Amino acid sequence: MSIVVQKFGGTSVADAERIRRAAKKAVDTKRSGLQVVMVVSARGKKTDELVGLAAEITAKPRPREMDMLLSTGEQESVALMAMAVHELGEEAISLTGAQIGVRTDGSHTEARIISISTQRMKDALDAGQIVIAAGFQGVDEDFNITTLGRGGSDTTAAALAAALDADLCEIYTDVEGVYTTDPRVVTSATKVECVSYDEMLELASLGAGVMHSRSIEFAKKYRVSLRVKPSFMDGPGTLISPEPAEPAPRVTGLAFVRSEARVSLIGIPDQPGVMNRIFSLLSDNRISVDMVVQNVGVAGTANVSFTVAEDDLENTLTVAKTATDDLGGVVQHNANLSKVSVVGHGMQTHTGVAAQMFRVLADNSVNIHIVTTSEIKISVLIDHDLCDRAVNAVHEEFQVAHQNEQTPQVGVPSESPRKRTRKDTSELEADIVSRLSGMEEIVVSDIYSDTDQARVTITQLDDHPGVAAEVFFAVADGGILVDMIIQNVALDGKANISFTVPGGDVARTIEVLRDPLQRHRDAQVSCDESIGKISVVGIGLRSHTDVGARMFHALGDGGINVQMVNTSEIKVSVVVAADQTDTALTALRMSFNLSQDEAT
Ligand code: ADP
Ligand code: ASP
Ligand code: MG
Which of 42, 269, 318, 359 is the most buried (most CB within 10 A)? Predict the structure, then answer.
């Protein structure tokens, strides 16, 4: 018989009335002939209350005790839910994480699932019961209770759906589905019918709180069909599926993180091994970084910037200081920042999406401190107090663009700039997933190189709103498809931007930049056609904090200097010198245990 997993979030089980309503959905589903596993979160703000209570006792609660405490929220909910189902005349059994055999590693408060034993759930389902599983929790090998990180019940649901080979995993929540952005912040946000795994992975990891990003990792790895639905009404919700909507809009969604901090290491040596040292230290301290930007070296030194969650700043500064004590250079930081990102497969085939975003920000007097991109996302770092303005303006721009999608596009659609490897990525992923020893282990499915790109770097740009827009509008108007974009934090009022374009377009790029750069007295353009871009493709590349460290370790050991980096959940790319590309590719494939014969 087909199995459906139905997850109900905190607001959807906040009081007796809502618990009854959730129970009724499950009972109706069971009566339609399906087997039902419910995954339930703690009621309302229960988890926050428990966190607050712990803070009243101690400023530094031990993580093990925190997990013991927080897991009680879900335990309360499952028992109440079982009672509600009983009242509706169906059999149900509530089970804690330990009772359903959710085995995790021992990283308290952020544990990862290793395995799930399905026998007890299957027996209960076959006996006609609705299984009511506590979300967010598991046990380590010593039976200590662990939790999966805030918002982790989504991950429990997707993991159970994967382990039980369920037909569908429904995520019931307090909005109608996945919206173009947070509907609580932008009232004109609209629900989307369908979003791809990759888009949702990026959106969730870049701040869209509607789904825990690790739940999408599970969905993608194990091909779980996910639907986000409203718990307070009937409605189809949003399908999260392997493929993007057709035709893909330029931008599918916008996500933001209000409180982000930037840390820069200025004047560090520009030589192999330096990035390795920094990223190993960060990874050892389990600090998850985003927006990694390295300037092309000048006079033997380089500047590296990255962003971290504001809560991680203190820890990060200690780590950064250790690195500069060792390597030289100084640490700078800024805490009052927000990150705004647009995500969509459509940007792979439309030129000018970045320019459009930068222009809207400039029109709204929002200065951009840092830019990073990957294949399907563009992120900018801006001042914290401009976050709402930026989010609303950028959202409106792309919503209008989508509504007018019939109008001619800026530039021309282009074929994907990268070469494919022998097998389709999903096949490679399936192969690797079948061999994983832990369900949440990282998946690196492919590593390939592309030597058809060239790097263009503009230094000494006057830093004011609109600089990036001027540059990228000129490039887009020239019909040139930009791949990686990196803008590092301005120093002494001067910004610098690096980006890659198809090798054959370098001359035209220089040409189209001539006009806008005339307005910048000191600006200098340089280009390098002898570069290689190497991309590591997989699932959960950012949430596993050691990926960057492993990459930089392998490259550092091989004596390879990294010129540009960009990171995302599904791909990390580095630019190196063309004549080092093959060595770098081999080193990275070895480091991630991929066979060499698959290399392109
Ligand atoms: P639950 O308790 O059901 O897990 P969450 O609060 O974790 O619910 O997630 C739902 C909330 O996510 C919504 O109320 C909404 O404010 C927020 N949200 C952020 N980004 C989005 C988005 N793109 N689409 C829908 N909701 C979003
Ligand atoms: N109750 C947990 C939290 O609030 C898990 C969840 O709701 O997904 O983070
Ligand atoms: Mg949630």
Answer: 42
